[in-house]
RCK N-terminal domain-containing protein
Amino acid sequence: MERLRKNKTLFLYYYLIMIPVAVGIWILASHYHLMEENLALMLTAYLLLFSLIFLITNRYSFQIFLFLLTLLTGVYGFEHYAYKDYPLINALYSTFRLFMIDVDNVFTKSGDKFVAYPLSIEIARWSAALYLISTIFQIAYSFFNESIKLFFYKLLGNHYVVVGYHQQSKILLQNLRDQGERVILLTEGLASSEKEYLDELGVMVLVGTKTDHDLYETAGLHRARYGILFHEDDPSNLDELISIRDYFREKRRSGEPLNILLHLTDQQSTILYEEIEKEMSKAEETVVRIVNTHRLIADNLLNAYPLYLHYEEWVKDPSGDALHLLFVGFDETNQQVALKAMERAHFYNKNKLSITVLDKEIEKVKKLWFRTYPKSHHVADFHFRAFDIHAQALEWLFKDGQPFTHVFLSTGDDYLNMMEGIRLSKQLNHLPIFINVKEEGLLSYQVYQKTQELANLYCFGYYHEVLNKEVFINEKQDKLAKLIHERYQEQKRRESPAAANLPSWEQLTDFKRESNRSQFNHALTKLMLLGLDAVPKDEAEKVQGKVLSKEEYLLEISDQLEKLAEVEHRRWNAFHYLRGWDVYPTPTPDKTRDEERKLHGCLVSWEELDRVMELVGENYKKYDRDTIIQLYDMWKTIDYEIVKRESVPTQTE
C-alpha cells in the first residue's frame, strides 16, 4: 500500500512536468515547424501514456523510459526516412544497433556518416546512449551501493543502528526514514519481500548472527548517534547489550558516549539490567536508557489527556476525594497506564489515587502486579475484582454508585474494546473513556471524528504515534532532564565544597536519569495547580492569558510554594516506591540511603521530613521548593513561555 501511494505521487508529479513539455512539442511543430506533426503526435501520446508505468513500479523507470523512447522513435525514423523502402524487421534491427552506439545510415545513397539525421533518429540515438550510460551506472550502483553508503555512514557518523526486525521495529524504521535519518538495520534473517521494501525505504540492511562484533564494526556502531536494541524478547536485548559493552571495551571508543536505547517490557528484566549496569557504569563508552513501547503509549496518552483534565477544582481541594481509575483488562499497556498515573497523580488533594482492576484471571493478575511492584500500595489504593467482559456488563459497577473518574479498556481485543467503549460512552457521557486500539481502522477513525455522541471517548495505543523520533528517542525530554540534574548539582556545590565530584549526566544510572525525566513529566501538573500554563514562544500571543516575566512568576508562586513543594515530595516518594524502594530507618549525616537494598531516609511524609533533616543536617525541603522556583527557567530553556490562564475549565463545563 505504501509503495502504491508513492507511485501515485510520482504519477502526479510526472504529469505536472510532462504536460508543459507536451505543449512545448506542439508549439515547436505547429508554430515553428521544427517537427512534423506525426512525430509530435507520437511523442505527446508517449509522454502522457508513459505515466502509467508509475502505477506499476518506479524502479528503473528512467531506463524503461529511455528504452521505449529509443524503440519508438528509432523504428519510426528508419521506416519513414530511409531513402528506399525499409522493411519493419530491418528498422527494428537498426534500432537495436543504436544501443551499440552505431547508426545504420540508410538515409543517403552514399551511406556517409557525416550527415544530418532526421529528428526522430537524433532523439533515438541520444536516448540509446543515455540508456547505455545510465544502465552501466545502475549496475555499478547495484554492486557497490552498500559499500559506498557504509563508507559514508562510518565517515560521517551520527546515524541510527537498529538491532532486531519485527512489526514494531519496522514502524520505527519507517518513521526514522520519513524524518530523514540515516538508518542501518542489523538482523539475523529477512524475507526477500521485506528486504525489497527496506531497500526502497532507504534502510541499509546487514544480515548476521546476534551479538556479532564484526557486524557492529561494519555498521559503524562506534560512530552512531543511537544504538537501538529492539529484538522481540528481553533476553536477546540484554545479550546484545552485554556484547556491545564488550565490543566497546575492545574498540576503546573515544569522544562522546554512544546512546543506547534498550527495549525491555518486563520489570524483572530491568532488575537484571541493573546488575549489568553496575559494571557498565565504570566505563563511559555508552549511555543506556530503557524504553518500553507500552510505557511510551501510557506517557503519550497522559501527556495528551492529563488525569486532571476537567477535574482541576477537584484535585485542588486538599480534603477532596481522590481520582478513581477503572481498568477493564490489565494487560501490559493498561499496567503501564496505571503505573504512569501513579507517578503523575499528585495534587493538593492528599488522598491516595484509587484504582479498580477488572480481569478474568484476577488472582493471577493481582499476584503478578504486587510481585512486580511490591511497594505500590504506598501510592494507590487497589481493588481487584474478577470480571469476564464477554459474559458480564459493566453498567452494574456504576449502578452501585462507584465514583469512577476515568475508564481504561484494554482487553486484548480491539473490536471488543471499541464496542464496549462506544456503549459506555453513550450511557456515561460525563466520564472520559479510553480504549486501547492497536490497529487503525474505519471504526477508530469514526471515534477520532468526535461526534457529539462520542465526545468523551478516546482511542490510544497506536504504535505509529510512539515509534518515532519525537517519542521513542525524545531528545527534548532528555535535554530538560539533563538540565534538572545540572541545576541540582550547582545547588549542591554551592552548599558544600565536598560535592565538587558529583557524577555527570552520562555517569548517572538509568534509574537516576529516569528520576529527572519523571520530574519533568509532572511539570505541567504543577503549573495547572498554580493556574498557569506553558506554551511555545511563537504561540504565546495567540493564547488567552498573560505571559509572565520571571519576577511575576515568583510572585504568583509565593503563596503556594510550600503546598507545591509538598506535592513534589509526594511525587518523588511515589517514583521510588514504584521501583521497589522503602524507608531507610536510621539516616545519619554519613549515610542517608542504601542503594543496594533500595532504602532511602527521605521516603517519609512531608511532616516527618523535618525529623530526617534534623538527623542528617541537610535541608531536603529546600530541594523541593527549588524545583518549583526553577520551573520558569526550565520551560524558557526550550523556548516556552509561562502564561497565566484567564479561566480554568471545571468538571461540569
Remarks:
- The two ends are 43 Å apart (CA to CA).
- The chain has four domains: 2-140, 157-291, 297-465, 522-645.
- The mean pLDDT is 85.
